[in-house]
Amino acid sequence: MDLYGKDFIVSQEWTKSQLDELLELAARMKRDRYSSRWTSILEHRTFFMFFYNPSVRTRQSFECAATELGGHAQFLEPKAMRLKTATTAGETIEDAAKVMARYACGLGIRILEDKVPHYGAGNELLREYAQWADIPILNMADDRFHPCQGMADVMGWAEWYGEGPGRPSYENLKGKNFLLTWASGALARSWCSVQEALLVASRFGMNVTISRPEGYDLDPEVYAWTHANCEANGRDFCVVDDPETGYDGAHVVYSRNWVTAGAYQDGEFQKKAEVEKAMAYPGWTTTAGRMARTDNAIFTHPMPIDRGSEVTDEVASGPRSAVYDVAENRLHVQKAVMALTMGNL
Amino acid sequence: MDLYGKDFIVSQEWTKSQLDELLELAARMKRDRYSSRWTSILEHRTFFMFFYNPSVRTRQSFECAATELGGHAQFLEPKAMRLKTATTAGETIEDAAKVMARYACGLGIRILEDKVPHYGAGNELLREYAQWADIPILNMADDRFHPCQGMADVMGWAEWYGEGPGRPSYENLKGKNFLLTWASGALARSWCSVQEALLVASRFGMNVTISRPEGYDLDPEVYAWTHANCEANGRDFCVVDDPETGYDGAHVVYSRNWVTAGAYQDGEFQKKAEVEKAMAYPGWTTTAGRMARTDNAIFTHPMPIDRGSEVTDEVASGPRSAVYDVAENRLHVQKAVMALTMGNL
Amino acid sequence: MDLYGKDFIVSQEWTKSQLDELLELAARMKRDRYSSRWTSILEHRTFFMFFYNPSVRTRQSFECAATELGGHAQFLEPKAMRLKTATTAGETIEDAAKVMARYACGLGIRILEDKVPHYGAGNELLREYAQWADIPILNMADDRFHPCQGMADVMGWAEWYGEGPGRPSYENLKGKNFLLTWASGALARSWCSVQEALLVASRFGMNVTISRPEGYDLDPEVYAWTHANCEANGRDFCVVDDPETGYDGAHVVYSRNWVTAGAYQDGEFQKKAEVEKAMAYPGWTTTAGRMARTDNAIFTHPMPIDRGSEVTDEVASGPRSAVYDVAENRLHVQKAVMALTMGNL
């Protein structure tokens, strides 16, 4: 199994066939959730979960995943660790990582924008752990990427365009239109989920449209990857400035608030300033009216949903909402990632 | 198994035969604690424990219970969740609950009076989770009820009036005299345990006496239920104002501090004011002298015990103290509840 | 199995043959880590971990140990418990311990110098738990001792002077020279690890040298035990005042910062004052130059390492560094302790 021992930091760094293998296993695990084929894969093994930022879904779904594979996920918070920082004595990441690799079969890390001094520093931290620990490092969301969310997203979309839960059709996603739209709200959200969604949608053969106000562009490298993915698949990638036209003909609508590229000032994430900036763009909300412009699109969101700002209740709880299915898929794709990278398959 | 999928929010909402079934299974589990009959009931399954308030016994006993049933209890604190409140954006209970139901086989919730704006709001929150989550919701103590404590109480009393640990006689409790007495102290305690004790004692055929200072009456609805339970069983229910006479002829003495009905002012639980009120009633302590008025009663308490205020050491650690047996029973009744409502029995 | 039910509070209170048995089992467990001989020893059992102080390695390694033995370690923090203190109402240790003994197969406790009013109070607390709980109490580091660290230390040294990982030779340690040297730094560290190292090195037949600045002597009782251990084995014990000469001819070098005997004033641990005192002794660092005076010694440290102050990177990450092996051994010795004191062997 060539994925054994491999880190999972961003989907773009895995080949398409590696992602396919992951998703194929996730679907089998979903169809037959407690099968004895899976329940001893991590038996008596420990997976460390390292939360620089707290979390709901990520903690719940990773800890469930380890349990369902027969293993145990340890919930760890670095605040309890005496880690070295720029200004305080403490343990180096080299030392922490090398010892953890002696105890555990894998290490998940979550670190978001408000815990780092500049964009990308969270992702760099993951890569520093990966450098020293010879066990797989799984990205449980950093300030750039959220690959497990991306996998859960595309699995959910493919189920809705396939034969339902556990029976996704990735073939049917090809040539479909994916809209990622910025959304109003006071949550000053990270780029990680939406950037991963761009990479995944483009990788799996969809046309990609981003709609956002001027000034809300994402990481240029992610745009470049998305563009390259679309080109390789013969699909289109475009960016629009208004909250309406992107919906035209869409098959999958993903709306979510996010911050500007100017979110860091003086080595700190300026949440308050970002909330104020976002206030200048009310009405970037996914409504039933806007959904009517689409080609009967499904609605997707990585949760938690800021209802009323990002999307109306009518859409979020409506008959074309994939949000709970996508959230459930976090469990299944994470089981598959853990099994492939750490398991005795 | 007709209890599969059922919520357990207050004992009064389960039929007597459902409670009997629960207690019968708890006793079997206690007699043969690690039997293979029980150890795979929750195998590879996750039970979420949701602690709005911290806890000792409840956390320990629920997490042990899941482990002994072969499953895993996840310890979750809502402070790590971005939940919507009256004043902040965040996730709705609908969204949180619906996703949790995809991951876990059950959800326990603990929320006490100091986390809610008015009496009953904690219980309402449990019912809101129950409305959205199609997995069992277990009450791990709210501001009104504590059904697992109630079950552990009555099992302990029935063991003391039966043939000992794991060999309770509920028949022998019928017609016995139960005294619930308010007690001095600076802990401003919740109503949940004592209200559940009233419901359970009356339900299982005991005569019920409450002794408390004027102004310390409990929830009128609980009094009404207790009264109805007693009447249905042909037993007596009475309330007395002094700290002595209630002991006369008692078989089970339960002493515990609690707050007045006026504990909430301006949407907040007024702990300090309640402690001051209680200071006006020193000497409401269970002593050996008072126990001498009883019919060789056992002493029971849901713990933690405020020794010196609620009860003297002589009684709490004496030969008729059931406190540790009752505490142990938390484990067994919770295993039984989880097995019946979530298990593959 | 005569260790069943036994507390492990300081290595000095176990006989040498009991320690030998523990270390023999630890090595077997390391050689064959996931053998089915070990993985059901704690099946369906709960081990409570009680952290008055947070921890990295201790928490990780104990929780892994329980998992690898088939059991579950519950992570508990006393701040969530309403325990009685000198000034607040709450639960007595008697009550807490007696109930925990009903739920769990063992209880680990960690309490360091900054959580207690005077030296030794942490150790006394462990003994109070041990008095009331009829399950084994394991010391996960207190203000005096850290027996699991001591066992991991000596196992690591014996592996380096034996045939490598899992193949220690305790015979080869006899007559070797052990240097414990105080080290510079701003961490104001506890005595527990270094005191346990003295006891263990002397117990296993090594000559012991302590080098430290005047005023940095450790617990006189530990010195007396170390002296007695050395004498019983026909070895030397000496204390030197300078940072250089102790290295001469050493086979195992252990450097670590620690506080003075005057660290407690007015019932509080004076961390800031201790850091200031330590600043008067820069240059007590283990360097390659100093290691050159030894008899090709290995370098050992209980971690976390304060690199640059306690030891240079060149030594800590050098070819004779045993630090990660020692850290790994925490897992194996703890599995062995748990198996012997709590398991169905």
Q: What this model shows, in words?
A:
3 copies of one chain form a homotrimer. In chain A, the strands form 3 sheets. Chain A has a 5-stranded parallel β-sheet with strand order 7-6-5-8-11. Chain A has a 4-stranded parallel β-sheet with strand order 2-1-3-4, sandwiched between helices. A two-stranded antiparallel ribbon of chain A has the order 9-10. The mean pLDDT of chain A is 95. Chain A has helices at residues 16-31, 57-68, 93-103, 121-132, 147-160, 192-203, 220-233, 271-279, 288-291, 313-316, 323-342, and strands at 46-51, 72-76, 106-110, 137-139, 177-182, 207-211, 237-240, 252-256, 264-265, 268-269, 298-300. By secondary structure, chain A is of the alpha/beta class. Chain A binds chain C through residues 43-46, 48, 71-72, 74-76, 79-82, 84, 89-92, 94-96, 98-100, 102-104, and chain C through 34, 39, 54-57, 59-61, 63-64, 67-68, 70, 72, 75, 185-187, 303-307, 309, 317, 323-324, 327-328, 331.
In short:
By secondary structure, chain A is an alpha/beta fold. Chain A has helices at residues 16-31, 57-68, 93-103, 121-132, 147-160, 192-203, 220-233, 271-279, 288-291, 313-316, 323-342; strands spanning 46-51, 72-76, 106-110, 137-139, 177-182, 207-211, 237-240, 252-256, 264-265, 268-269, 298-300.
State the CATH topology of the largest domain in chain A. Rossmann fold
> Please, what is the CATH homologous superfamily of the largest domain in chain A?
Aspartate/ornithine carbamoyltransferase
Class per helix and strand makeup of chain A: alpha/beta
Major interchain interface with per-chain residue totals? A-C, 28 and 31 residues
- Characterize the largest beta sheet of chain A: strand count, sense, and whether it forms a barrel: 5 strands, parallel
Number of helices of chain A: 11
Mean pLDDT of chain A: 95
